[in-house]
Amino acid sequence: MDGEVSVALFDKEQRIVRHIVAQGPRQAGRVTEHWDGRDFADQPLPVGSYTWKGLYHDPIRTRYVMSFANSGQPAWKTADGTGGWGGDYGPPTAATASGNRMILGWTGHEAGWGIIATDLSGKKQWGLQHKNAAHLASDGTRFFAFSGEPGDSVTVFAAANGQPLAFGNGRQGLEAPPGGDPKRNVPTGIACHRGILYVSYGSRDLIALYDSDSGASKTTCRVEKPGRMAVAKDGSLRVVSGATIARVLDGKSAAFAKDHLDEPTGIAIAADGQVFVSNHGSRQNVSVFSADGVYLRSIGRMGGRPKVGAFDPTGMRQPAGIAVDRQGKLWVPEAAYTLKRLSVWDASNGKLLKEFFGGCSYSPFAWIDPANPHEAFFDNTIWDINFETGAWYPKSIFYERQSDNSVNSGHGGFFYPFRVFTARNGRQYAVSEVWAFGNVLWLREGDRFRPLHFVFKNRPNPVLMNQPPFPIMNDLRAYPEGRMYVWSDANADLEAQLSELTALPSSTPPFHWMDADLNLYAGGAVYRPREVRTDGIPLYDFAKPERRTDATSGLTWTDPEGQQVWTWREGGEFARYNTDGAKAWWYPRIKPWRDAINQGSPGPGTLSGTTCPLGVVGRYSGMISYFGTADLVREDGLFVAQLFEHPAKGSNGPQVFYVEFLAGQMVQPKGSSRVYLLAGDQDCRIHEVLGLDSVKDLAGGTYEHTAGLAAQAAEAWAEYESQVARGQPLVLARGGEAGLAAADPVSKSLDAEHAFEVRAAYDSKNLYFRYMVTSPSPLTNAIPDPQMIFKGGNLLDVQIATDPAADPRRTTPVPGDVRLLISQRAGKPWAVVLRPKLREFTGQPIQLVSPTGSEAFDSIAATDRVELRGYGASAKGFEVTAVVPLEVLGLPSLKPGSQWRMDVGYLFGNAGGLGATSRAYWHNNSFTANVVNDIPNESRLEPAEWGNARVE
């Protein structure tokens, strides 16, 4: 039969040295495979005898089943930007009505959206992937946003599509009133009415008024601790003022309401003049007042929904920047990190109408216990799920940290995997990670989990984690930095006391897996319970782990019975061990994602960039790859299949994950023959794996790698490396656009579907770049914000040092270093010039921020002076010539024979131009030059990595 084939070479030590073919489609009959004589590390395979083993099968694929914890329709990203929902790092915090749409904001995001627009039913219309919003306001056609970050300012956007705009004075942001400083100039509320934009500065007891069109400052007024605001029809303000609500008119402040409030946070005014105030204190609901300040009623359960326990939809949790739409619906962003919810209520009677959840945390870690497949665990929440109908709903919050001396379980996400197991005693346990510190064993009690044991390192990192996990351990003399400890909750109060802490040997490994007998696995060791109490609590001697394998670090995982023991260490071995502790087989080194990122998306069988084990189902296990795929391996070490579609291909759909892929689970529900994969982007996504039942074995045999074959391979490699060493010089041909025909090209290929070739030429006024791009996506970029144009991909990328005297070895840009990104938007040229440094610059730099850091630019500006000529698309890609005036780059007239430091490249994107999928450059192949999921890296210029271009 025809099928997909995988064949691997094993040496005498059962080390897998090379895949001859991995998941390769082959026709039935005799097949001869060719290979390059190298091993996995690209080193010559030593002469000797090897065993080959293989398997074949029908195409193994995945079928999308459902997503949960994300209210997008659909939950995944779509080419038109309408899929997915909300921010993945921060909770929803702001809402504003804008005609027939709502603008909604979150305080943090990376894979999701910091600001989205929906229709009045909650269907997403567009999303911004560069701007967070702690505060929002709208005048009906535009909206105004403040991210909440110190140093940022209030900016303006088009409500129809989220396109950044400028105020009439040419500025993109408002200037704070004189007399403040960066910390005190943080806006605490925004409102807009009849051409006036109001901005409150709570730490300055000040409200500033601006002309909403020009951005010019008009006046200020004094209000005590002003926060969020709303404007009544008569132009008077209702302002959160400390613990009360104030009425402000003509610069004068008066009391409006002080009772039936508790830590008021948000405020909105309905068309009939009623005032709605959200409460963050003990009330945890919305208080409703008449237009003249008389308390009328409350919306939402008094005290809010419980922090822990059964989910009650009638209660809010941390209601924030609320808004009332033109249909009389009250929109309530709930700023709780656990179970990020936005609820919608009938403003007239308080009835809950709708609720939206998400977005999920970045690369979310969702889990299903095979003993109970009707529940899923994510974000400290137990979710009811239904594989048949796709329905899902939160069931309970199973844990929330109650004090600083409680275990920090996180709020979902890849830093906090929460793996749930049913033990042989019928009780449910979980193993989780507290990022950088260690791991926790949990016991389920009803609809909650409680921590039992926490093995951790005190202050594990002097830079990132230079504090203990519990403040009671602040005394470094008593609790030294780097020392291992275990906390066991002896009195069941969920809080650490010093008497419950035990010092451990420095070599104690934290556990991360459990089998049905409550054995905990840690690196190559196992902790076996010395006693299991009648209440289900297992007790261990964590000072004396039992060595199970020769692996001393990394992750260990098993089947439920603990018979198959698999191990993997980032940048190290991937292996399976027999029950006697001997290796059944092993891959010598799996390349970590940081090393593999500059090699493009790994193909089947490379196993590069692995980040997380999937667990064991029957004869199969596997690992998630950083690059958006999952690799399945059989218990005998043979590679079986790579699942999901590489984001680099630029398509959209449930099979594509536009995120650093960091978490996943393979699970077979008890009593079922079906196998599922859980993974996520900014949603928790479930797929069924199809085709595993078709896997069959090839006969296998031996292979002799003779001295002659080794010499033949070495000769071929020497010729190849000689050609590579000669390199590709970049020459700017004379003759302007006509000179392109005679110019020598430079090129870069990532794979058969992603490559580019560039020819360059010049004349007295312009540079000319003729691109021939192989890509499944056209030259289009739909990102409206010039500061984030690189997020959309499908971009010609030109980087150049216009100061020939600058140090070529510099690692940070200097004045004269320029980056030009060019694409098409709505059928017209769309080009942006990025300048990290300008000479004699005195303004506020633009900070492009992510959780990894920031990158500063003195100027990022669109230009309409770049021309695109001769664009011609085909099924495989396109050709286009970019005409770039020398003035745009700041270059002088080019002299023949001169040299300039520069680079040319291409940013591949999806078909709609809303997401970058991969990058490639003629000369730069650094880590930064290949990242597409981190804003500072994506924007950064690296002059030391550029090459020399010679002017003909």
Could you give a short description of this structure?
This protein is mainly beta and 952 residues long.
Describe the sheet with the most strands. 13 strands, mixed
Q: Which percent bin holds the helix content?
A: under 10%
Strand proportion, as a percent range, falls in 35-45%
Number of helices: 4
Would you tell me the structural class of the helices and strands? mainly beta
Low-confidence runs: none
Average pLDDT, all residues: 93
Total beta strand runs: 71
What is the rounded Rg?
30 Å
Give the end-to-end Cα distance, rounded to a whole number of Å: 58 Å
Inertia-based shape: globular
Give structural notes.
It is globular, with a radius of gyration of 30 Å. The model has no long low-confidence stretch (mean pLDDT 93). Strands 57, 58, 59, 60, 61, 62, 63, 66, 67, 68, 69, 70 and 71 form a 13-stranded mixed sheet that branches. A six-stranded antiparallel sheet has the order 32-33-34-35-36-37, with no helix packed on it. 3% of the residues lie in helices and 41% in strands. With 952 residues, it is mainly β.
Strand and helix map with partners:
Blueprint lengths: L2 E8 L5 E11 L21 E10 L3 E8 L23 E7 L2 E6 L8 E5 L4 E5 L6 E4 L3 E5 L8 E4 L30 E5 L2 E6 L4 E6 L5 E6 L3 E6 L5 E5 L2 E6 L2 E6 L6 E6 L5 E5 L6 E4 L5 E5 L9 E2 L12 E2 L4 E6 L6 E6 L5 E6 L17 E4 L2 E5 L6 E6 L20 E5 L5 E7 L3 E8 L2 E10 L26 E5 L12 E4 L8 E2 L5 E3 L2 E3 L3 E2 L5 E2 L6 E2 L7 E4 L6 E4 L5 E4 L5 E5 L5 H4 L13 E4 L6 E6 L4 E5 L4 E5 L21 E3 L7 E6 L3 E7 L5 E2 L3 E5 L1 H20 L3 E4 L12 E6 L2 E9 L3 E9 L20 E7 L15 E9 L2 E8 L10 E5 L2 E5 L1 E5 L3 E7 L3 E9 H4 L9 E11 L6 E6 L13 H5 L7 E5 L1
Parallel strand pairs: 57-59, 57-71
Antiparallel strand pairs: 1-2, 1-3, 3-55, 3-56, 4-54, 5-6, 6-7, 7-8, 9-10, 10-11, 12-13, 13-14, 14-15, 16-17, 17-18, 18-19, 20-21, 21-22, 22-23, 24-31, 25-26, 26-27, 27-28, 29-30, 30-31, 32-33, 33-34, 34-35, 35-36, 36-37, 38-39, 39-40, 40-43, 41-42, 44-45, 45-46, 46-47, 48-49, 49-50, 50-51, ...
